[in-house]
Amino acid sequence: MLWTIFVILLVLWLVGFIGFHVLGAYIHILLLIALVVLILQLVGGRRPIV
């Protein structure tokens, strides 16, 4: 699920960066959120269901 959120945020960032250069600050916030999600996924990994 986190990978899906990461991909969606990354795509939105790329579209916004290319298409709407005026809203640069908001687009970079999306990039930061996508990176945080990716780092959380890599650090957390899959946890076994108990």
Brief rundown of the structure:
The chain is an all-alpha fold and 50 residues long. The protein has two helices and no strands. InterPro entries: Lmo0937-like.
Helical run tally: 2
Task: Give the biggest sheet.
Answer: none
What structural class results from the helix and strand content? mainly alpha
The amount of helix comes to: over 70%
Rounded average pLDDT: 77
Query: Would you count the extended β strands for me?
Result: 0
Radius of gyration: 13 Å
Q: How much β-strand is present in the residues? A: under 5%
Low-pLDDT regions: none
Organism: Acidicapsa dinghuensis
Protein name: Lmo0937 family membrane protein
InterPro entries: Lmo0937-like (IPR043727)
Pfam family, one: DUF5670
